[in-house]
Specification:
Length: 265
Amino acid sequence: MNEVAGYDVDRLIAEFRVNGFVVFDGLIAQATLDRIQEAWTPIRDADIERQGPNPARGWGRYNVRVPFRRPFVDAEIFEHPALVAFLEAVLGKDYVWPHFDSNIPLPGTDYQRWHRDGVSSPFPGMRTPTCQVGVKFPLVDTSEENGSFEVIPCTQYVGDEELPAELDDLFGRGPNDGGTFRSRRLDLKRGALWAHDNRVLHRGTPNRSNRPRDELCMAMNRPWVFNAWQHEFTEGHFPRDLWESLSDHARQVLRLQRLAEERRT
């Protein structure tokens, strides 16, 4: 057992390599999540209003960019020793954090389509090690009431060319419609963080509660993976005072971000 900060990292790595996902229970302090939630709510609400009632992911399912600034960029989360040890093992020591966004199903949303976050391989027809990991944490407890996450284990090893174009035809559109395919539902306590290979098949489930189910998503990549947002977004956005407060390792992880210009008086 390789225990790091109270987590059996060897076990977590083994689970990830087999199943394609893993859960770190109790990794984030409640006070940290409180600060994030307070700062996040007005950003979320403003962007939901901007996007209108029918965003790209379908009615009520929003993707809102998370700004690379405090309190969202928190070293106690992305620099947690167990998470760092895990990511270095599955992505290599030179991994980067290029992208930060969110998943927000509003009350009344139905099942999301089965999908993977990207393609099965950057080299069609070839199996590769994990290239991208979605590191995600909900800001609330997740449950069958508010739309917890559903994952089909081990599907990270199935190529796109081996699956139908419409995955719902194979796995089903509603509850337990997948026949012999057995999904796992991740009902997480606030403070948990889960990480998945971007290729593993997953979906959001209906939000039958009376409030949004917010989840923030840190994309961690091997450094050569192309990121369209970073390629197209050229404005300096990362605060210099935050950058200067980071550890050397944190700067390495965030090295692709563009520093904001210093204000001159």
